[in-house]
């Protein structure tokens, strides 16, 4: 099976599968790590034509890149491999903050290449913007990696419109990764118009609202899952009850369309433009297969209007993070 492809960026274009796969949860944050399940899911993804894989050095920390490296060891040529630097952590998980210093960029890239077992990274993102370092210096170091053949394309994650413009002036930015779903649409104000103006692709993470929009979550997740903590306010108390009521609206519309709520929510993201390639995350083959089915859900203008009436922009309760200090606005 081969999924359709989409092209991210115009000055530095990268062709990827219409849907990607976020690998973070295979190693950390959403319950227990599952390396075997994660590798099986990646292999099934490649078989289904999902070739755009997303990881980061901080996931684990470090273990997710190792997992992805094992999974693609014999299939590297099939993959558009994305990873990130900038959220610096110690091996025990201690966070050291955001780091965009040029020397750190170089060290982080070398370490990621070793863990992934590859000689180049297809798309290298700055995971969060370091406000203490001019973006021109950080992107300048990233450009050196492109010139050396260690990285093919550059990206940013959770950057403001102004930062994106400044970065793009140093070296073409191929894609910007940020949270985007029926539940999170704030980027439509300034970031998305800037991407379209500059010819930069959008890679939405958490396009299923961290699982809420699948309809599979009905209570606060169990202890050990970061969604059970105040770090994710949308899963807490009255916020969760309010958000689940919105999910029921999506479920009803999905039933009418003959698909699952998650497929409908993903189809909405895909319908936002041919320059949009979401990366829903999962560590389970069955959820991967369900997500891939979203590519076959074609939405009419009426369908889109019904969805946006059911989940009005700004209707979701709670901030997407308890601490939004590293998110540029």
From TrEMBL:
Record carries keyword Oxidoreductase: yes
GO CC list: cytoplasm
Domain NADP-dependent oxidoreductase as annotated: residue spans: 19-310
Single GO term (MF): oxidoreductase activity
Pfam families in the record: Aldo_ket_red
UniProt entry keywords in alphabetical sequence: Oxidoreductase
Protein name stated in the entry: Aldo/keto reductase
Organism the protein comes from: Nocardioides faecalis
